[in-house]
Amino acid sequence: MGTTPEGDLYSLPTRMVELALAEQGWRAISLGNSLPLETLAAACGEHRPQLFWLSVSHIEDVEKLAAGLNKFGEHSDETRIVIGGQAVTLDFQRRLHSVTVVSSLSELAELANQIRPRPTKGSMNGSQHNGEKNGKSHELPSKNGHG
Description:
The protein is of the alpha/beta class. The protein has five helices and six strands. The chain has a single domain (2-120, 127-137), classed as Rossmann fold (3-Layer(aba) Sandwich), CATH 3.40.50.280. The chain has a four-stranded parallel beta sheet, covered by helices on one side.
């Protein structure tokens, strides 16, 4: 599940993320674009996705977005919050402490496979979702990407 932050009207990057994750076997859902963080937090609380992406091509208020993302990430125990995009500069990344930053779609795909390994052909059935396979949940790597 994912979107772009409020004020970011670029829809193509988030659509590309949706397609890249679908290619990895995820049920990826784009919420559209330019949504406030409060809406994103509510969607995560309701749907409890394993992974939530934020494609960032434009930032209206760097301080507000960084603070909001950190708060969002701190309260998303079961959801890995992942951001990336051309507006995610090194300066912006230094302000973040509770989300995962990726620099490319291939890096996102690799992370997605760490969270939930891609099923082999024929192993996925309709009852498996939210990281469950044979009734067991996959353990998520820590938010900082270590261990």
